[in-house]
Each structure stands twice: as structure tokens, then as C-alpha cells.
Amino acid sequence: MTLLLENKTRLLLILSQDVLDQARVVAGKATTVLKLPVSLQIVLRALIWVGLKRESHAALFANIESQARAVRQKRSGARRAGEGRYQPSGNPQGLTGKRATAKR
Q: What pLDDT, in 10s, does the model give residues 26-42?
């Protein structure tokens, strides 16, 4: 795998502390075995790259499904708990509850 980062972009990735700790262990082991400094970023990029090559792997889709269901459940629970209080920022009705009109 040659990973030249010529066409790069930034990404905010939110991980559990356990996953982050496991990735740090992998970085430490790789540093020891390769006798090269291996950063957490290198490990995460490699894991993503290898995971993307296994797009038909059943365990990958099971993990994706599990995460998607957990996000859906959390969002629907938050909506039920905050019904009537939360308005998404993309709502054309501002804080006044009146629809914004465009000036012509």
C-alpha cells in the first residue's frame, strides 16, 4: 500500500476510548516490529484502507449495521425526549416561529 496524500482532506472522527486504546496498542506494536515511528494516524488510515478493501466481508457489514441502528435509536430517543423543544438549525422558521421571507 503506497499512500501518497496528495489529494487529502480533513475528517473529524469520533471513537470510543476503547477503540482508540486498541489503535494505540497497534501503533506501539508496529513501532516495535518495524523499528519505525508509527503514529495513531498511520494506524487509523491503514485500518480504514484495509477495511474498505473488504467491502463484501460479512463482519464489516454487521458492524456497519450495528452502528447505524445505534445512531438511529439514539436520535429517535432524543427526538422523543425533547419533542417541542428542539428545532434544527436548518429550520426556515427562526426563533420567532415566523417564516422568513426573502427580500426582492
A: 999 999 999 999 999 99
